[in-house]
Structures are given as C-alpha cells and as structure tokens.
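Action item from last week, closing it out:
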Amino acid sequence: MNNAERPQPVSLWTAFAYWLKLGFISFGGPAGQISMMHQELVEKRRWISEHRFLHALNYTMVLPGPEAQQLATYIGWLMHGTLGGIIAGTLFVLPSLFILIALTWIYLSFGDLPVVAGILYGIKPAVTAIVIFAAYRIGSRALNNSVLWSMAVLAFIAIFVFKIPFPAIVLAAGIIGYIGAHIAPDKFKAGGHHGSGKDSYGPALIDDDTPLPEHTRFKWSRLISYAIIGLLIWAGVMGMMITSYGWEGTLSQMSWFFTKAALVTFGGAYAVLPYVYQGGVDQYQWLTGTQMIDGLALGETTPGPLIMVVAFVGYVGGWTKEIFGPENLALAGAAGASIATLFTFLPSFLFILLGAPAVEATRHEIKFSAPLTGITAAVVGVVINLAVFFAYHVLWPEGLDGRFEWFSLLITIAAFVALFRFNIGIVTVIAASAVTGLAYSLIL
C-alpha cells in the first residue's frame, strides 16, 4: 500500500485477529509492549496516527493499572467502540492467564524436581537484574533535576525504612507534583513518552484531524450506564463470593484485596508489587516470599502485563488454602487465579470506557503531567526498594547469617550487562539465565 494513501477501514474481525496475536507475543514488559503496538499500529498498519497514539498513552499513564493493556483497550475502543475495547483489553490478558495457570500448576506440582529448581535458580537473579534495569530506565528518563531525585530518595526511605504503604506514597507524590506545578513548574515538566510525535508515517485511518465518531462522543447517559454496569459486575461477583464462602473466605478476601490493588497500581507492576507482597505474604499468607519471587520469574517469561503475577498469587493462595478441599487443588488454584485477574483488570476497563470520551473531547487541554511526574519520581524509589528486596532473597536465601550465593551474583551482573550494555531482550536474557542455572545445578 502506498504510504500516501489512507488505509482502508479495518473490520472488527481483522482487529480481533491482531489483538489475539498480540496477546501471545506481548513479551518485554510495558515498554516492550507499547513499542510493539507503536511499530505495528502507527508505523506499519497506520490504524492510528502518532499524535493520537501518544495522546491515548499519556492518559493511560496517569491511571492506576497496566498502561499497555489500557492502551490496547483505548485503541480498540477508538476503532470499534465498546465491544472493540473489551475485545482488545481481554485478549491482551487472557492468553497469559491460561499460560500462567498451567505454569503455576507445574511449579507447585513439580517445583522440587532438580530440573525445575535449577531453571528457577538461574531465572531469579535475572529477574533481580531486570528490576534494577527497570529502575535505571525509569530514573534516567524521569529524574531530570534535583527535586525529582530528592522525591525518589524520599520515597525509597519511606517504604524501605518506615514501611509506609505504597498508596500513601503515591498520593503524597501526586499532591507534591500538583503543588509543584504552581510553585516551580519547570521542575515538574513531564518527559516525553516514546518519541515526540513529530514523525510521519503517512496518513492514518484515525488521523490527527479525523472527526470523532459517534461512539467516542462524551455523553452523561453513557457514562452513568457504564458505571452502573461495572459496579453491578463487581458487586455481583463479590456478593457471590461472600454468600458462598463468607467474608473471611479466601476468595472473598482475594476479591477485596485485588480490587484495592487495582486502584493503586500507579507506575506499573514493579511499583505495586511491594503492596501485593505485603498482602499476599505478610497479611493473608497465601504464599511465601520465595514463592513471590518465583512468581515474578514466571511472570517475566510469559506474554501479557507483568501485573499478571497476581494470577500466580491467586493460584498459589487457592492451592495453599485448599479452598475446595485437598483433592481439588488444581481447581482451587484456577479459581484463585481467575478471581485475582478479574478484580485486578475490571477497573482498567472502566477507566477507559468511562474516561476516554472526555479525554477525546479535550484532546488539547489535558493537564495531568505534573502529578504524573511526581508519581513517576516516587516510583523510582519504590522500584529500587523492590530491587533491594529481590537481591536480598536471591543472594542470601537463608538470611544474612546463611551462605552467600556468589554464582547468583554473577548471573545478576551478567544479566544486567546484557540488558544495559548490549540491549538484549528480556526473554533472551531470562532464557540464557535459566539454561545457565540448570547447567550449574546439574554440575553440583
């Protein structure tokens, strides 16, 4: 097709096929997934212009929840309305849910086998390197002055030393950013995301000047009806859990906990993992700290949003608590994973379906950048805290009084160098680390 020609309208089935494919190949975390969508939808297929793509991305960046999944939902909605958005967002998540259910069953059933243990031995230090690299990437892009660096340091101290809950840190950082925009606006200018938006790949199906289709126009009646439907779904499933298992039942507690987690996932999965850890490990004891690290390792090796680690937490929790009896552990795990996924992602769909029409109507007036800049600075400190947590458990698996894992340190350093110096993909790094860990465990 000539780049000077506008692409032909895309059918819902064509879009369905693309979103399904994306669900199976969306490795690499949010940055990789967003880059993948940009290359395919903006550069190659030209379904949406650079400006409209970045506009949608900037909105998802200020929302709690996985921004890549929300971006897919937004673009699906923009192209084919509510059904298109639901299809895009669901297919972004569903393949990884099924894959994680299968992998978690293998992990719990055969995790003590030497082969599985050896693979995990290599993957866990690689995950530590990935988290450290994530902190570096976020920090190098977002912390461009001393004020933002100070906010990152204070956030790290707040969560590492004083154990202040992550939602409180996010709220404080957003308030500081809002105030800072009025006192010292130059210190809180948002960095650009994924390019300046000036590149031209030819006319797009949804271009900068494309009129708003009817389904994207803001209507109070639609907003209210969608909000009611979303709340009814949430309350209906929650009510079923409470009626069947009581408020203290494991699935009821998961429903409530992952609802709260969904509302505090500012800054992506790396930033909210400490909150999930506090609840899943310390408060409810659905899993152990070691299992949490193993879950993140599995999450890094599967497509879909990294926050899908909640499915692992839900599966292990359902299995550990034997919610359907000792003879139905696999079914209990699948139920826990499904509940965790539903309540984590339901708000993400509502944020897009409720807010996107208003965002489209005020495309040139959005002023969320300063609070986002403050939150992003705090997220850097929180991610560094997560890296310290992982490094401690990987390098001193028996505590500071136990042995030091020198080989794990070597894998961590090698993985970080591969990511930082040679720009090798996350999946490749994890695969190489898994093979290295397996070989080392077989030699010993």
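Closing note: The first helix runs from residue 12 to 25.
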